[in-house]
């Protein structure tokens, strides 16, 4: 296992070299880097080759390579796709392994969520779904289960997208929460009313705060928790009193006075 400081040190090293390129005005308009993977937009292939030479010439230990886009006609648009290394074996949880079925279904959903989050086009997402189906078929996942999971995922994504569209005809009503049965009944009634008046009525349930039923605690002066204070001590049995300076917290010193007074069998006060 390599040291976790390796990527951090490599990033610091590259940041130092990139600052020099920035001062010299040699950084492209689009330049993004993550550790040793760099994305740059260049006006031509020759300019990209010159920049590659510049990067490799910054230090003898640097050895960057360049990969050109497959379709240069799309240079003004950035698309994302899933890339798998040639060494990828597609090893996932086998369907006949001794694991509960919900974890196997969860694995399918996780891969679909990941593909939907990473891919930028519907075409790429459909291709990735076909690739995932091929991978999980080799792991003996039933085709019906995969098709059902994919269809439900797409349906949920579509429904969430439609719900995000607010045409300004939604009225939100704040109600006190009593119990779940009552809340469900209120939702059904408002849903039926929404269909009749063509306006979306959305209930928002709020719970009663516990502090509304409890009496607020007594606000104590901040000086009780302070250190290095001067206080006045007075005896309840006589008129003697004196001023004392303590370096400890005041509440600690008060406790000591009370303890000593109890030991002597007489009360004292501050």
Quick overview:
The chain has 270 residues and is α+β, with helices and mostly antiparallel strands. It is 44% helix and 14% strand.
Report on this model:
With 270 residues, the chain is of the alpha+beta class. Helix content is 44%, strand content 14%. The chain has 7 helices and 7 strands; from the N terminus they run αββααααβαβββαβ. The chain has helices at 5-23, 45-56, 101-118, 122-137, 143-164, 180-197, 250-264; strands spanning 30-34, 37-41, 170-176, 200-206, 229-235, 241-246, 268-269. It has a 3-stranded antiparallel β-sheet with strand order 6-5-7, covered by helices on one side. Strands 1-2 form a two-stranded antiparallel ribbon.
Question: Topology, pairings included?
Answer:
Elements: H1 5-23, E1 30-34, E2 37-41, H2 45-56, H3 101-118, H4 122-137, H5 143-164, E3 170-176, H6 180-197, E4 200-206, E5 229-235, E6 241-246, H7 250-264, E7 268-269
Parallel strand pairs: 3-4
Antiparallel strand pairs: 1-2, 5-6, 5-7
């Amino acid at each position: 296992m390599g040291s976790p400081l390796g990527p951090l040190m490599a990033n610091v090293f590259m940041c130092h070299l990139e600052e020099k390129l920035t001062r010299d005005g040699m950084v492209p308009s689009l330049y993004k880097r993550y550790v040793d993977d760099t994305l740059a937009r260049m006006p031509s292939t020759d300019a990209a080759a010159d920049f590659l030479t510049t990067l490799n010439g910054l230090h003898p230990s640097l050895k960057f390579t360049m990969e050109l886009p497959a379709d240069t006609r799309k240079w003004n648009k950035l698309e994302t796709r899933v890339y798998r290394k040639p060494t990828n074996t597609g090893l996932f949880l086998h369907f006949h392994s001794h694991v509960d079925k919900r974890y196997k279904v969860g694995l399918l959903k996780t891969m679909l969520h990941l593909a939907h989050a990473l891919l930028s086009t519907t075409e790429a997402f459909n291709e990735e779904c076909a690739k995932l189906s091929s991978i999980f078929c080799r792991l003996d996942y039933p085709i019906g289960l995969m098709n059902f999971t994919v269809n439900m995922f797409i349906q949920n994504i579509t429904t969430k997208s439609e719900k995000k569209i607010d045409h300004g005809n939604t009225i939100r009503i704040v109600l006190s929460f009593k119990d779940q049965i009552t809340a469900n009944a209120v939702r059904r009634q408002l849903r039926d009313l929404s269909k009749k008046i063509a306006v979306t009525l959305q209930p928002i349930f709020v719970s009663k705060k516990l502090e509304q039923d409890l009496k607020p605690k007594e606000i104590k002066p901040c000086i009780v928790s302070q250190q290095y204070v001067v206080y006045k001590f007075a005896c309840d049995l006589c008129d003697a009193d004196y001023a004392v300076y303590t370096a400890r917290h005041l509440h600690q010193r008060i406790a000591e006075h009370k303890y000593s007074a109890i030991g002597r069998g007489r009360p004292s006060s501050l």
